[in-house]
């Protein structure tokens, strides 16, 4: 719809009163037309970063915010050409749905016919035809967020900003709206920054994801990179579940001795911990197993079930297993952990085998 | 059976309390309409006293209305921005200012009036005009406006609404008049109700500040009770009620309208 613009943050830090550093000096580039997701636990600085991009917050001295070639550091939000969607909708309760959506257009003093045209267009895009005259309090949460979305895109902003827009909705609605937002973002091709603490949302929507921790970017990469090559244990744990196996000793032939068995991983020599995802571990017969243990708990999840397997380590291993089979507590179980699924943040990943290629 | 007895007792008690409060009002109104209160109703009903009050005190009534409206205008002009300022600056001194604003309510009106007289009494023109009383009324009623508006502003999530408006390109002025004011209208109306009624009924400060030429309704009422027949004072009360009650109803009604709209 509008020509998209890149966003560059240069050395943006933010310190709040009481010497409370919310954001360490940060460099970040969002490419034109890209959707970047800022992901992290609460208090990691993701919202502060978004607010600095929006202009609602200023970086500490020395920080610089660029939209394309234009330095917008000194501009307040109303002069930055951004569209913003908030967690609690922030719709104007004194106006109807149509008046809410047209608010930004009226501020721009567009001719009446143009406003009506755009109103039609965006209400169609967010599937709200016929809702124009409704009062805001007569809408459901999902409808409210659609209005907020329509209001933000109606002004054809250069940059779209989302501050946990789905956090207040229930799971089912969240999934549906997530898909719709994804489609909308692709359709518009507008540069977007999306803040969330939900990893599913991040992976579904982000062209790239910046995982943040304690005011820093812990890792920046595509969803695949973040998931399969996490930069550190925090990222690995935050994006999906992860098992940590302590390496007890290394054999002469290169085998890594862990609790309950031995792993072959030529690419992980010298590490003290080996990581792997629950869904990458396979249940095999005990005599073929890399690692053996006992089932201590099984959690039924519907499409799969999660087994907790005690291998003698500090915490049990988590394994994703087919949901129809049953493993009563105490069952001896054998696990296969091929080298391709084992990783360590400091080491390159193992050569990708054919099966994984097919998955990608 | 038992619950029915309880209901009857409760109803009886409620009616008694109501009577206790309503009878004096009715007595007062009747006194203003009877020919001779000491003789009683058999002396006949008359509008003579009402008429007489109108002859004597019409200007106090007009002055009271003028004062109340001027006071309302000023408390809106000062109070709404003040509440907004307090909302935006949640720092330590914001609390201090809020408490300072309440001071004229806690301090006896006579003391406030005395302070005004000491400070500005020597400016003859000002001292003799109705504006002097207006200052006292604004001091006394402003906290009610600020409080009412501030509490609505705090529940209306105004900062977020403003951020949304700003993201859509609205300047401060556009946000203030297009988003802030409409969304705290119910607070402004509630505050207006308080300000107008307090201003019309205010006696303490006004009594100290008035001159023979700037008497308000309550001051005139005191004057008439002190120096005239009881019937005249009562007829005066009647006029006061006829004036104030529709005003209260109108403001309540306006308040309910905005409530329904949100």
UniProtKB/TrEMBL annotation, chain A:
InterPro entries: AAA+_ATPase (IPR003593), ABC_SmlMolc_Importer (IPR050093), ABC_transporter-like_ATP-bd (IPR003439), ABC_transporter-like_CS (IPR017871), Mo/tungstate-bd_C_term_dom (IPR008995), P-loop_NTPase (IPR027417), Transp-assoc_OB_typ2 (IPR013611). Residues 7-239 form the ABC transporter domain. GO terms for cellular component: ATP-binding cassette (ABC) transporter complex. GO terms for molecular function: ABC-type transporter activity; ATP binding; ATP hydrolysis activity. SMART domains: AAA. Keywords: ATP-binding, Nucleotide-binding, Transport. It holds the Pfam family TOBE_2. This is ABC transporter ATP-binding protein. It comes from Vreelandella sedimenti. The lineage of its organism: Bacteria, Pseudomonadati, Pseudomonadota, Gammaproteobacteria, Oceanospirillales.
Automatic annotation (TrEMBL), chain B:
PANTHER family: INNER MEMBRANE ABC TRANSPORTER PERMEASE PROTEIN YDCV. This is ABC transporter permease subunit. Residues 61-251 form the ABC transmembrane type-1 domain. It comes from the Bacteria. GO terms for biological process: transmembrane transport. InterPro entries: MetI-like (IPR000515), MetI-like_sf (IPR035906). The keyword Lyase does not apply. Keywords: Cell inner membrane, Cell membrane, Membrane, Transmembrane, Transmembrane helix, Transport. Belongs to the binding-protein-dependent transport system permease family. Gene3D superfamilies: MetI-like. The chain crosses the membrane at residues 12-33, 61-87, 99-123, 129-150, 176-200, 235-255. Signal peptide: none annotated. One of its GO terms (cellular component) is plasma membrane. Its main location: membrane. Pfam families: BPD_transp_1. It is found in: Cell inner membrane; Cell membrane. It is a multi-pass membrane protein.
């Amino acid at each position: 719809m509008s020509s998209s613009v890149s966003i560059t943050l240069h050395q943006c830090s933010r310190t709040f009163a009481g010497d409370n550093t919310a954001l360490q000096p940060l460099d970040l580039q969002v490419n034109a037309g890209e959707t970047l997701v800022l992901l992290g636990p609460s208090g990691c600085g993701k919202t502060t970063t978004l607010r600095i991009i929006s202009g609602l917050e200023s970086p500490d001295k020395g920080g610089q915010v660029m939209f394309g070639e234009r330095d917008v550091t000194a501009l307040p939000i109303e002069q930055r050409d951004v569209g913003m969607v908030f967690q609690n909708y922030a719709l104007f309760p004194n106006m109807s749905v149509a008046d809410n959506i047209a608010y930004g257009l009226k501020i721009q003093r567009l001719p009446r016919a143009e406003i009506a045209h755009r109103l039609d267009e965006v209400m169609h895009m967010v599937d709200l035809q016929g809702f124009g005259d409704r009062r805001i309090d007569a809408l459901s949460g999902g409808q409210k967020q659609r209005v907020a979305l329509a209001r933000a895109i109606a002004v054809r902003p250069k940059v779209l900003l989302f501050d946990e827009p789905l956090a207040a909705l229930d799971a089912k609605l969240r999934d549906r709206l997530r898909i719709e937002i994804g489609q909308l973002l692709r359709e518009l091709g507008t540069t977007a920054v999306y803040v969330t603490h939900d990893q599913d949302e991040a992976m579904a929507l982000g062209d790239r994801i910046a995982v943040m921790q304690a005011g820093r970017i812990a890792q920046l990469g595509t969803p695949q990179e973040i998931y399969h090559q996490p930069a550190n244990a925090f990222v690995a744990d935050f994006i999906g579940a992860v098992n940590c196996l302590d390496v007890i000793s290394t054999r002469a032939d290169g085998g890594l001795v862990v609790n309950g068995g031995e792993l072959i991983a030529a690419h992980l020599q010298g590490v003290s911990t080996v990581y792997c995802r629950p869904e990458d571990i396979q249940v095999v017969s005990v005599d073929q197993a890399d690692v053996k243990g006992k089932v201590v708990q099984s959690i039924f999840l519907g499409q799969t079930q999660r087994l907790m397997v005690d291998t003698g380590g500090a915490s049990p291993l988590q394994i994703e297993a087919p949901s129809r089979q049953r493993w009563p507590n105490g069952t001896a179980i054998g696990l296969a952990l091929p080298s391709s699924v084992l990783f360590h943040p400091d080491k390159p990943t193992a050569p990708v085998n054919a099966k994984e290629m097919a998955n990608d | 059976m038992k619950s029915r007895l309880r209901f009857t007792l409760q109803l009886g008690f409620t009616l008694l309390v109501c009577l206790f409060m309503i009878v004096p009002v009715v007595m007062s109104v009747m006194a203003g309409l009877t020919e001779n209160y000491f003789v009683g109703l058999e002396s006949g009903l008359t509008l003579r006293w009402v008429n007489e009050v109108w002859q004597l005190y019409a200007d106090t009534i007009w002055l009271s209305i003028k004062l109340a409206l001027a006071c309302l205008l000023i408390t809106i002009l000062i109070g709404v921005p003040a509440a907004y300022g307090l909302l935006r600056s949640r720092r330590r001194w914001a609390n201090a200012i809020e408490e300072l604003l309440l001071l004229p309510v806690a301090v006896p009106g006579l003391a406030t009036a005395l302070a005004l007289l000491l400070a500005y009494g020597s400016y003859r023109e000002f001292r003799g005009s109705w504006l002097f009383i207006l200052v006292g009324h604004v001091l006394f009623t402003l906290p009610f406006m600020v409080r009412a508006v501030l509490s609505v502003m705090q529940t209306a999530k105004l900062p977020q609404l403003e951020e949304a408006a700003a993201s859509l390109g609205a300047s401060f002025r556009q946000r203030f008049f297009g988003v802030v004011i409409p969304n705290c209208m119910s607070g402004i109306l509630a505050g207006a109700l308080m300000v107008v009624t307090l201003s019309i009924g205010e006696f303490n400060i006004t009594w100290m500040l008035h001159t023979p030429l700037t008497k308000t309704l309550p001051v005139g009422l005191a004057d008439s009770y002190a120096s005239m027949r009881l019937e005249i004072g009562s007829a005066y009360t009647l006029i006061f009620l006829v004036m104030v009650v529709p005003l209260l109803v109108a403001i309540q009604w306006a308040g309910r309208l905005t409530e329904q709209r949100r």
